[in-house]
Structure formats: C-alpha cells, structure tokens
Request: fold
Amino acid sequence: MQIHLDQVNWLAVPVAAVAAFVIGGVVYGAIFGKKWVTLHGYDNEAATARMRQSQGKAFALMFAADLLMAVVIAVILTALSDVTWMTGAGVGLLMWAGAALPDQIMQNAAHRKPVAAFAIDTVHALLYLVASGAILGAWR
Reply:
C-alpha cells in the first residue's frame, strides 16, 4: 500500500474532526446524555463536580483524538483509487468494525459497563467514523 501524504486534503481533516466532535456532543449530550451519566455513575453531586472539573481537558483530548482519527482515514484514502464519499464512509465502517468495535467489546468486558453504555459508545463510534470517512472521501 502506497501512502501519499501530498494527496491528503489537510483542510478536510479538521472539518472531519469537528464533525466527529459535534456528533459526540449530540450523542452524549442531546440524545443519550442523562442516560450515559446515570449508566457511568456520574449522577451524584460529587461525581458530577469531578467530571465538570476535568471537562476542558477531556474535551481537548477528545478533539485531539478526533484529529488523529481523521488524519488516519485521510491517509488510508490516499492509497485507494476513485475515492468518493461512499468509499470514505466504507473505510470508516471498516475502521469501526475492525478496530473500534473490538476495542469497545474488550473495554466493556474489562470494566463491566452496562450493555446500554456499551451500545451508546458503540453507536457513537460508528457514527463518527462513517461520517468522518464520508467527509474525507467526498472532499479529497
């Protein structure tokens, strides 16, 4: 596989990262926010205070991870020909099925999170990987 860094659309990378970050906000805020907080035991005052204290650092790390993920998808797409938004979405789906999903299964097994928490995290990963891939594929 040949990688062509000169073929990466470096403007599309942060756009895809922002999209992934926004998807996280929607999934963990608007849609499943209260449920996720309860499932992870952050529904008491002390835990909520601790979570809010570290929120800025957590968001910065999440965005950095979103950027890294977007770079990886963009680099993978340079090795493919005839790239479209569907190709990008397919790469995102493969990254979810081959990396994110197995990792989340292992994390869930190790930490014994409720199945609902696992489902929220897994749906989030699927959405942001496919969306980011579609953006990067379309804007290549």
Observations:
- The helical segments are 12-31, 33-39, 45-53, 55-78, 85-111, 115-138.
